[in-house]
Amino acid sequence: MVKNNQDIDRWDPEDTTLWESEGKRIANRNLWISIPNLLLAFAVWMMWGMIAVQMLNLGFPFSEAQLFTLAAIAGLTGATLRIPASFMIRIAGGRNTIFFTTALMIIPCVGAWISLQNPDTPLWVFQLYAFLSGIGGGNFAASMSNISNFFPKRQQGLALGLNAGLGNFGVTTMQILIPLVMIAPVFWFLSGDPMILERASGTLIGRIEAGTETWIQNAPLVWALLLIPACIFAWFGMNNLRTVTPNPGHPLRAFGTLVGLYGVGFLTAAIGLYLFLPAPVGLGVLNMWLALPLIIVLTLGFLRILPGEVIRPGIKRQFTIFKDKHTWSMTVLYILTFGSFIGFSAALPLSIEVIFGYMNQVQADGSVERVANPDGPSALTFAWIGPFIGALIRPIGGWLSDKVGGSIVTQVISVVMVLASVAVGYVMMLAYAAEAPQDYFPAFLILFLVIFAACGIGNGSTFRTIGVVFSQELKGPVLGWTSAVAAYGAFIAPRVMGEQIQAGSPEIAMYAFAAFYAICLVVNWWFYLRKNAYIKNP
Length: 538
Description:
By secondary structure, the chain is mostly helical. The chain has helices at residues 16-58, 64-85, 88-92, 94-104, 106-115, 123-148, 156-181, 218-237, 251-276, 288-304, 311-318, 325-356, 379-382, 385-404, 406-432, 441-469, 472-486, 489-502, 507-528; strands at residues 195-196, 201-203, 206-208, 213-214, 358-362, 368-372. Strand 5 and strand 6 form a beta hairpin. The longest helix is centred in the N-terminal third of the chain and has 43 residues, at 16-58.
């Protein structure tokens, strides 16, 4: 009988006798400990979109563009950290990795809790903690790689769908819980002193008027407190698989390896942000489309030259995924699904606040000025619904793909996303130019819910395809790599939508996304659905 936290020497989920005798129990225990850890990782990673909205409502001395950078920075760092995280399980072990990377997330949560209690805190401090919050984004790649090793191929769609789908609920949980914990000193003396809202805010249960006390510092504190029991369960309830990680070594050595791997991601993300962000934080010499490839190339290059008899052979062996054309096709398709899900989750709160929280008003001289809209919907009330639907439906996407094939499901949702993106772009254009933008909000919200539902189903279908196309040894690194590149959506979407909203043309962002989705239709058809496809409807 294998102990809850014991390393497992013999593991073959395709062996039905072993699976039924004790394999199923072990796999399910690791899955159900993994899920809440991943949920908290998503919450920490994506919390800056909601925190930035409340900072705007409280009158923190930063512009809308500066506040958009917080979610974007966390998004970029989280995506970059997924690249080294995709190699962690085979080098350091599943139990070691999940425990340690979960514990690391306590650092930005505590730092943000302290800093948010002082509205005079410099912007760079918040940007630093947003940067460190990217640890939560990186953890996804390690988590999915780990769980993929525990289950047989026939259950890959459902198992990965549950881990990712319920883990994705971290976005929804965060968007519901943060507004609620800010309305009262729910953590007693740890909550500190309140601040006064300068603009109306809201929660799931309704609007909160200007002049109300709020405790914004509770937003990161709630995750710091929840991370402690999550670490305990991971340490005492999960397993390292020796068939996957032959020599994880002493846990302290494994933790050192993990620090080195994440250190590479932090270094390259910092270089990219320094070259991309404007002064005084950075140089502002690269645009987004040059900074991202540079970060990816630097990260892969530094990983390749890392020293150590454990790290270097493990990474070199897993670099073989880049020679497979299906790695690249699935990368594009996962950008379509998860990239859209995480990107819109990050960008939607501030987009609602800026597009519908302001309105055009004709001045005496005939000019048009954007002023606060007293009837505008609160982002904190509505932003959670889309990620909730996307996460809820993801396991259904995995289950459906197990039945009819992943690529057929991916093709259908791609068509839906093209049409819905064009439609929501048109509605955004009308709302931005309107004197009563709230009239367009129901159509805007419904169309975005359609996009989120399609993303969620597609997340399940693409992971099913990866599980079928790649071998047991390669699917973990491929899952990690594709999720890493797709996670840059959490950086791209806030930047693109923020820039286009500031330019007065928010519809351009959605039309560009629709064009990309159309390209994905062709890629999916060419590789997996045409008559002579490389692999038919995996």
